[in-house]
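Problem 12. The chain below contains 380 residues. Write out its predicted structure in token notation.
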Amino acid sequence: VAGISVGLIYTFYYEANDTFYYFNTAVQLANYSKENFIYALTHLFDYDEILNVDGLVVEGFRSIVFLKILSLFALFAGNNYWICSAYFSLLSFASSWYIYQEVTEQFENSTPAASLTFLFFPSVVFWSSGIEKETLTLASLYFLTVLLMRIYFRRPNQKAVWVLFVLSSAILWLLKYYWAGVFFSAAITVVIVQFLSDRVEKIKRHPILSYVFLFTLIGVGFSFVHPNFYLHRFLEVIVSNHDAFVSLSNHTNLIHFHHLTPSISSIIINTPLALFSGIFRPMLGEGNGVMGTLASIENLLILILFFSAIASLKRKTRPATVILTAALISYCIVLCIFLALSTPNLGTLSRYRVGFLPFLIFVFAYQNRLVEFVTKKFLK
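Solution.
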């Protein structure tokens, strides 16, 4: 249903038809591949910055990767948009159910929070369904998170799980390398801290401080992995993306940062506004149109969850989940800040933030007295 809704929204509401553009282009590529099977085999894993096939010209590495993946789905869907959308939605649901089962097994009394987060939260379900990059990348992120949890809790992993790991890592890195960079920084830190806490008493006594130190250190290390992660280049990419969105957007639908420049001091100054806006905006009265109003209502719910989570902080957390919780929070904060800085359009940000929102909602909702009260009062 959500996947079909995405198609309908792009048909009747949005002027930019990204989902149909991608699908129609993928159909052209699929048809050409059927007639030129040798080309399909030799070029499926060839990802240049420009795709030029039989008059079809596409620019952008990540767009080309997505189109080639989508063309495979189009072949099995008989070039039918709605069937292809159903395949994407099925993949989304399978990954959501997979992480829901793992979370409820490892986090005590987490069924209400996990259900809200991974199965029913409106914008997460909506923007991770249908023919969108976010559908594939969030599904990949869910699969990788499950594997991380299984490693953390020392559960055996079958060979199929490791195949999923390789496939999910590749898709996440190729389509959303910045999601992947932050996620793998957090995941590697979790594994190292867990390993050392069994052997070093100081780390065992101070897991949060150890996590923060190592996460920062590994994050710096990742800055040498990809050209766009080089510090000077990273800041330039953030600001150039920000400026591009500003030039194309209505000023009433923007996060107005204070003289954003590609410098560390400017990023630090604008970080609080980026973090707040990435999580809680648009607020009531800020949203434009139907979608903006719905986003505002949802953000009011997030704000209520946040304050009720603060009120529930005194509740004890299992020592076994402390490091994982720290990883969730650090991943969400870092990705939220950089997404908000580089994507100041509130409407677009509402879609892009599905990369961290489900994990943040789980942090807010888990062991939350309000969530537990509502569950007992109305759902039992």
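Discussion. The beta strands are 50-53, 56-59. Students who got a different answer should revisit the alignment rule from Section 12.3.
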